[in-house]
Design goal:
The chain is of the alpha/beta class. It contains 10 helices and 10 strands. Strands 6-7-8-3-9-10 form a 6-stranded mixed β-sheet, sandwiched between helices. Helix 3 crosses helix 4, helix 3 packs parallel to helix 5 and helix 4 packs across helix 5.
């Protein structure tokens, strides 16, 4: 696996949301991506996954340039994501939601085998008792779990999780922790975007920090959290101290 983000710039009119962001992920690891509100995290995610085109720069996936491709084409090449706001098919059952991505990716797949895989994933996510319930009846946390399950049905090599803990009950949050660790142990790379600092420092092996569209830090979490520029990005600069 190899994801290369090369000098990505994104402008919205006169606003420059990303200012030449570059990084590479070329091994199974769990990478935290943090930054203050408006730092450009979701914009970067949307560009990597084909939801938005970059103003300039390039995205390469396993040696193939993918910026400009449609999201489904990028997903077929092994890069998947979740969204901050869950997007389950509310009028379909939990099982039907699980089958959609797998059968869309492999229309000729054996239906029985696909259903068995879906049951195994639902059991791990503690959603197996809801298999025949409509997605609209699930709680917010359960819908987050369902979205994670649908993503796993695609079996991507690189996964971007956008705020997977937002609005999730602490008990379910621990289930998501376990899910993320299991996926990492299966040899996949995960980019975890979260405002929950406990989850970031509990799970991450590498930490990247965006601020005002720039990547200001990239390294081991314990080192990054002590960097003055990272502290300033989150806490601001003391004007009196600066003047002194």
């Amino acid at each position: 696996m190899r994801l290369e983000v090369k000098n990505v710039v994104k402008n919205f009119g006169g606003l420059q949301a990303l200012k030449g962001v570059s990084f590479t992920i070329d091994e199974p690891q769990l990478v935290g991506l943090i930054g203050p509100n408006g730092a450009g995290k979701t914009t970067l995610t949307n560009i990597i996954t084909g939801m938005l085109p970059p103003t300039s720069g390039e995205i390469w996936l396993n040696g193939e340039r993918v910026d400009g491709m449609r999201p489904y084409a990028i997903a077929r090449r092994g890069l998947g994501r979740t969204f901050q706001v869950t997007r389950a098919f509310r009028r379909m059952t939990v099982m039907e939601n699980m089958l959609v991505p797998a059968l869309a990716l492999h229309p000729t797949a054996n239906r029985r085998q696909v259903e068995q895989k879906a049951r195994e994933i639902l059991e791990f996510l503690t959603l197996d008792h809801l298999t025949n319930e409509y997605a609209r009846s699930l709680s917010g946390g359960q819908q987050k779990l369902l979205e994670l399950g649908r993503l796993l049905m695609l079996d991507p090599q690189i996964i971007i999780l956008d705020e997977p803990f937002a609005g999730v009950h602490p008990k379910l949050q621990r289930t998501i922790y376990d899910y993320i660790r299991r996926v990492r142990e299966e040899g996949k790379a995960i980019i975890l975007i979260s405002h929950d600092m406990e989850s970031i420092f509990t799970l991450s092996e590498r930490l990247m920090v965006l601020n005002f569209g720039e990547l200001i830090a990239d390294g081991p979490p314990d080192e990054v959290r002590r960097m003055p520029e990272v502290i300033e990005a989150y806490l601001g600069r003391d004007e009196e101290e600066e003047h002194a």
